[in-house]
Automatic annotation (TrEMBL):
Top-rank taxon: Bacteria
Protein name: ATP-binding cassette, subfamily B
Transmembrane intervals: 54-70, 126-149, 155-174, 239-262, 274-297
Domain ABC transmembrane type-1 stretches: 19-299
SUPFAM superfamilies noted in UniProt: ABC transporter transmembrane region (SSF90123), P-loop containing nucleoside triphosphate hydrolases (SSF52540)
Entry's localization field: Cell membrane
Keywords: ATP-binding, Cell membrane, Membrane, Nucleotide-binding, Transmembrane, Transmembrane helix, Transport
Topological type in the membrane: Multi-pass membrane protein
InterPro entries the UniProt entry points to: AAA+_ATPase, ABC1_TM_dom, ABC1_TM_sf, ABC_transporter-like_ATP-bd, ABC_transporter-like_CS, P-loop_NTPase, Type_1_exporter
GO molecular function: ABC-type oligopeptide transporter activity; ATP binding; ATP hydrolysis activity
Gene Ontology CC annotation, any one: plasma membrane
Gene3D superfamilies according to UniProt: ABC transporter type 1, transmembrane domain (1.20.1560.10), P-loop containing nucleotide triphosphate hydrolases (3.40.50.300)
Record-annotated ABC transporter domain positions: 333-567
Length: 578
């Protein structure tokens, strides 16, 4: 019921339009209810000579036309409301997802999220836009027909309506059984979408391992799960829908039985009897409709629960209520006794203390899984420490506005995700207003200037899904150019050049040094060229800084570093498909 009330809340901005569709629906149904009365009168008129038949004929035709016009207008108004509600919900959901922290997406499945933003929202839209108005229309039709019928003949009314309580019981039972079933259909649809997303985005790995058949089997099994559950729902509908449609027929049969005695005895006129017959036909529509709306409401509530589950999950990296204003960023970074772990009770960083002076370049090295990338992500506040703090120019990053922080600290990862857009748009991602000269300069700093000549349409070339039209090394350089154009005060390069050949890497390192200015850099790499770029090397192990010093000096006194650097050449051979 709570979900239902919350769903209704989305109609609030469109109160007037909803009211207008209810008024239009009521107008249409008034015309519908009046027609059987007129038919009854016409029948009685025929029996007494048929003098006013033309008037009745014209009135019936006029009412039918009015009903048509009102129904068309109602559908137009309701259609608009339903699409607006869907738009609002979709906006809200997307905006909310954007505010959630990276940690949420570590666990969420993209397909599940897409399914909530499409299938579930559509179920809500159908109910709020159409179902609700149908429900009101059906109930009002039933009440209006009931009033007219009771006024005309309580006896015939009882004959027509005695199955109504039975109908309510059957409909309620249907609702109880179908609600969990339709919620499960929606859940399985989402799982199917997630499976499809995994297969499509991982197509390269699937091909490399010839795993098409395995993936097809998994997809088929997910599709069959949807089928089985949808069949369960369909079986329920197959049984209950005709039953709901059948019960009013019992009323009709009783009406004929009672009428066959009441008309000859003169208790009711033939016209009244025909009118009642008309009412039972008019009533069948709304009764069927109520069954349908019930199903719609159940699907909408099931979908609403799933959408609200997402909307109610607040961001766990909250924006400070009163952020510390930043006048001039210098770019000094400090990790103060930072404890952090991805899983509760399994700390990865254990009281890390690390200070990086403004404008300095620090390289983080350490065994695989030591937490170097994690340190970079904490600097960019993609995660918050469990204990301790990350400070930028002495201010806890949790007290800075996210907008300000993102402008100051930019992280370039190994993956260097590119969007399915032009080369220009990808490089100018943080500065869409950048001129072509600025975009070209950034590409040159990142050692990717030759790319513009190589690509068929230069800066306008679309890079394909995730930039797959480029090589791994090209993708990394475009990602670096994107970061350099953003001109952050603090740049975190996390294995950001791992796919680039050593000669190009040296060229990029030289340009990074030349253009560094006051930029603070945190480099995660074991490649000597990049380590030489750093003022200091920091060795991370056991969740802390275990050694620190200038590259040659530390290399001489730390066998661990010597080992890490000499074995790191292997990473050059890593391919894009890993
Ligand atoms: N999003 C995540 N969710 C759960 N665990 C994670 C996540 N990201 C990393 N980890 C785990 O945290 C540990 C440290 O990962 P991190 O990427 O920081 O290490 P690293 O030192 O950069 O390693 P490498 O040199 O191999 O890149 C690893 O054991 C990894 O499995």
């Amino acid at each position: 019921m709570r979900t239902f009330r919350r769903l209704l809340g989305f109609l609030r901005p469109y109160r007037l339009a909803v009211a207008a569709s209810v008024v239009l629906a009521c107008g249409a149904l008034a015309a519908g209810v009046a027609i059987p009365t007129l038919i009854g009168r016409a029948v009685d008129d025929i029996r007494t000579g048929g003098g006013r038949l033309t008037t009745y004929g014209l009135a019936i035709a006029g009412l039918a036309c009015a009903r048509l016009a009102l129904s068309v207008s109602r559908r137009l108004v309701a259609g608009r409301v339903s699409l607006r509600v869907e738009l609002d919900l979709r906006d809200r959901l997307y905006e909310h997802l954007q505010r959630l922290e990276v940690g949420f997406f570590d666990r969420a499945q993209v397909g599940q999220l897409v399914s909530r933003a499409t299938v579930d929202l559509q179920a809500i839209r159908f109910f709020l836009g159409y179902g609700l108005v149908f429900a009101v229309q059906s109930v009002v039709t039933l009440l209006a027909a009931l009033a007219v019928m009771l006024w005309a003949s309580p006896l015939l009314t009882a004959a027509v309506l005695w199955p109504a309580p039975l109908l309510v019981l059957v409909a309620a039972r249907y609702g109880r059984r179908n609600r969990p079933a339709s919620q499960e259909v929606q859940q399985r649809m989402a799982e199917l979408a997630a499976e499809a997303e995994q297969s499509l985005s991982g197509v390269r790995v699937i091909k490399v391992y010839a795993a098409e058949a395995v993936r097809s089997r998994r997809f088929r099994s997910a599709a069959e799960r949807v089928y089985d559950q949808a069949m369960l729902s369909t079986r329920l509908r197959a049984f209950y829908s005709p039953l709901i449609a059948f019960l009013p027929q019992l009323g009709l049969a009783t009406l004929l039985l009672v009428g066959s005695r009441a008309v000859p005895s003169g208790a009711v006129t033939l016209g009244e009897f025909v009118a009642f017959y008309g009412y039972s036909v008019v009533l069948a529509g709304p009764l069927r409709m109520l069954g349908m709306v019930l199903g719609m409401a159940q699907r909408a509530v099931a979908a609403g629960n799933r959408v609200f589950e997402l909307l109610d999950r607040g961001p766990q990296l909250p924006e400070p209520t009163s952020p510390v204003p930043v006048r001039k960023v210098r770019g000094a970074l400090e990790f103060q006794r930072v404890w952090f772990g991805y899983e509760r009770g399994r700390p990865l960083l254990r009281g890390l203390d690390l200070r990086v002076e403004a404008g300095a370049t620090i390289a983080l090295v350490g065994p695989t899984g030591a937490g170097k990338s994690t340190i970079g992500m904490l600097a960019a506040r993609l995660y918050d420490p469990e204990r301790g703090a990350v400070l930028l120019d002495g201010v806890d990053v949790r007290r800075l506005s996210t907008r300000e922080l993102r402008r100051t600290v930019v992280l370039v990862g190994e993956d260097g995700h590119l969007f399915s857009d032009s080369l220009r748009a990808n490089v100018a991602y943080a500065r869409p207003d950048a001129s072509d000269e600025q975009v070209l300069a950034a590409l040159a700093w990142a050692g990717a200037d030759e790319l513009v000549e190589q690509l068929p349409e230069g800066l306008d070339t679309r890079l394909g899904e995730r930039g797959y039209r480029l090589s791994g090394g090209q993708r990394q350089r475009v990602a670096l150019a994107r970061a350099l154009l953003a001109a952050p005060r603090v740049l975190v390069l996390d294995d950001a050049l791992s796919h680039v050949d050593p000669a190009t890497e040296r060229r990029i390192a030289r340009r990074l040094r030349e253009t560094s200015g006051d930029r603070t850099m945190l480099i995660v790499s074991h490649r000597p060229t990049l380590l030489e770029l750093a003022d200091e090397i920091v060795l991370i192990s056991d969740g802390r800084v275990s050694a620190r010093g200038a590259f040659p000096e530390l290399l001489a006194r730390s066998p661990r570093l010597a080992e890490l650097v000499s074995t790191s050449g292997a990473s050059v051979a890593r391919t894009a498909v890993s």
